[in-house]
Amino acid sequence: MAKRKAGTEYTAGWYDWESRQVCFSYWKNGERMQHSFNTKWYFFLRREDAEIVACRKFDGLCDEVEEAGPYIKLFLPYYDERREVFIEWLRSKGVEPLEADVHPVDRYMFDSEIKISTNPKILYYDIETDARKGGWEDVGRHRLLSIAYAGRGEKVRCLIADDSDDKGEKDLLNRFFNVIEKYDTLVAWNGAAYDEVVLRARAKHYKLYPRWNTINFLDLMQLFKKYYGRDESGSGVRISFSLENIAKTVLGKGKVKDIAVHRLIDVFNFEPDKLIEYNKRDVEIMQELDEKLGYTEAQTALAHLCNRFLCDRSSKSGYLVDGFVLKHAAKSQTAHFRTKNYNEGQEEERGIEGAFVMDPIIGLHEQVCDLDFSSLYPSIMIAWNVSPEKKIVGEADQLEDYAIAANKAKFSNMTSGSFPTIVKTALDARSHWKKEAARLEKEGQENSVEHRIAKNRSDAWKVLANSMYGMLSSPFARYYDPDCGEAITITGKTIIQKVIKLAGDYGIKVVYGDTDSVFIKSSKDQAIEFAGLAEKYLDEWVKECGALPGLIKLKLDAEFLRIFFTAKKRYAGKKATGKWDVRGLELVRSDGCKYAREFQRKMVEYVLEAAHPNAEGAKEIVMKWADELDEGKVDAEFLLLAQSLSRSIESYKVETLHVRIAKELMAKGKEVYVGMKIPYIVVGKEGARLKAVHIDDYDGKYDANQYWTGKVFPPVQRILEAVLPIPNFEWKSFLKYLNRNKKQANLFGRKKNDGKADPKESGE
DNA sequence: GAATTCTTTTACACAG
DNA sequence: CTGTGTAAAAGA
């Protein structure tokens, strides 16, 4: 057994079946080293439960028992099939085993001072294959042709097989395995579904056994999907997650693929230089993309603070929070949590009630301020000491000090619970790094490495703070406790409703509110003053609840010169800074077509920017866009529709357009996978159903009418109906605007045509 | 070695 | 033509 040196930073961890040790990898003078530790696995029981079952020697399985505060530890071998039986037996006795699913490597890390590297060595890589065998069903049979790779900031290199036979491929693999020896995390685009799968399968095929244990895999596409949030420019880039498309839209790369994927073998045979160039290019794009977006760096910070190595699993909230909470629990011995059990879904798990969303006052408003509660849910958690182990079940002890939440749940207040403690740690750390980032910005170091680190750490702590509520509310989570979850949401509901009511009492008009934000019609100064009053007023109530005052903070988030609402969660406004804030409108959604988005953007611009937006001006815009669509010359790019195939094709109950297109793709033997965007164009109607074709089968003839009535006009219509004071039926008549050319010559029936709003054609 | 939540709008398919 | 269920994608 090795001795750990203080300060050693580990890069990977695993369990060795033969020696029954937990092992960790680290670097020393550029050499990969390994420490192995003997360890005894255990889980917890509540002390009172232990007495009930008196199970100290279950068939000789548990060889040791140790007391740990209000818990006892039961030691037994993790990799023994009798473990499961034992756990079931405990449950049958009404005893809840705690943390009995925690992996030995994790357990060791939580109990010891194992440090995880803050700076894992990242290798971006991409493989090119001959995909003629196996198809998309069995990608493990795709033959490797070349592999391009580069570390962060390094020049991209490319290995190519000498021949497209077994020998060539095996040799290629061996060469690549020598490369990866020097890195910790391998990053590929869609790697979890493709590159990693192929790599492992091909290695197995040739009975090659690189040290997979020391290597972590990370899929950059998954990170992109998760973190590339709202598209500020509203360009709706997410039509396809292919690296090609993302590079085009995020990095502005113009180059189009000039190699068909199914012909890669020909390129390999006849133009190997081209294959190499092509292969390298994807790695360059990944490097550039990651440099710009900083996702792996941010993920490294988050994983690190949750005691996790940088890999795919470290982007799952449940896994991250486990890393933080269980380490905290092991140190403080304050609370241990239930065993996760994936197969028992039939327990009486209930959904929890969520937040309050106010009906907006539909229409256009001037001079509106948005007040936000900062970190509302984390703040409630701290103020009310919401934590599973602090919940008072049954009658509260007379002497016990407790806070009562809006759902009537009571939380003992004597000492701080594990969840509030962690959330407070997270919020404090976040505020520290946020200040640090602000300081660096002030000193003009906005683009420095230090600034990026500060920003990443600030974001990481924020993610952790916000994840804690989800962990109480998910039936799958170890920390699931709906009373705790609802203590937070319903208290939040009460708080926002109190503020809305208070505003009314002060004669301030509230135009909208959602969860933690309130939009009031007021000047900036008045809004700030009101926020201060509201905080004081709320604190009085917080104290009445027995909770901790001073934590619920209401701050001015934005001042809008103009803002309009069309529905709940749908609005657009122009801030005092001149910037727009568009939420929920089709403009910021990826499931419509670009033509509709651009049209809506035009109308939003008119409503937010024109000196006096009015119906006549709006009509001009509408007719211009209708006519252009009707001429039949709009590019495919603007008409392309796409939705994600969110699950397996068989599980769909309704055959929506994109499902139908996906089925056709499959029938043709093309690649179709879960999560894929299916791009198509509407070309007509078949009975009641819409008729659409895959973008590749599109011949340039779209159905203008279907686009106008179904996709293009309605998003604009909703804005017009909300903000322009003319009767609805008149805007509705525009839905049939295209038909006017054929049958409704004088649809608008305007007697006095002032000549401004003239349709291009006469209309017969 | 699976999984953060609820709330909301909108569009299409399908049935009557 | 209308009502209902399913699905996607958003807000927070």
DSSP strand content: 15-25%
Average predicted local confidence, pLDDT: 87
Structural class: alpha+beta
CATH C-level class of the largest domain is: Alpha Beta
Strand order of the largest sheet: 16-17-13-18-19-20
Q: Tally the helices: what do you get?
A: 23
Q: Could you give me the name of the CATH homologous superfamily of the largest domain?
A: B family DNA polymerase, palm domain
What sort of overall outline do the alpha carbons produce when their principal axes are compared? globular
Low-pLDDT segments, ≥5 res:
742-764
Regarding quaternary structure, how should these chains be classified?
A: single chain
Compute the number of strand runs: 23
CATH architecture label name of the largest domain: Alpha-Beta Complex
Radius of gyration: 30 Å
Task: Report the end-to-end length measured between terminal Cα atoms.
Answer: 90 Å
Per the CATH scheme, the topology name of the largest domain is Palm domain of DNA polymerase
Biggest pleated sheet: 6 strands, antiparallel
Structural commentary:
With 764 residues, the protein is α+β, with helices and mostly antiparallel strands. It folds into four domains: 9-117, DNA Polymerase, Chain A, domain 1; 123-293, Ribonuclease H-like superfamily/Ribonuclease H (Nucleotidyltransferase, domain 5); 363-581, Palm domain of DNA polymerase (Alpha-Beta Complex), CATH 3.90.1600.10; 590-739, Topoisomerase I, Chain A, domain 4 (Orthogonal Bundle). Helices cover 40% and strands 19% of the residues. The protein is built from 23 helices and 23 strands. The strands form six sheets. It has a six-stranded antiparallel β-sheet with strand order 16-17-13-18-19-20. Strand 16 and strand 17 form a beta hairpin. Helix 10 packs across helix 14. The longest helix is centred in the middle third of the chain and has 25 residues, at 418-442. The radius of gyration is 30 Å and the shape is globular. Residues 742-764 have low confidence and may be disordered. The chain binds a DNA duplex (16 and 12 nucleotides) through helix 11, helix 14, helix 20 and helix 21.
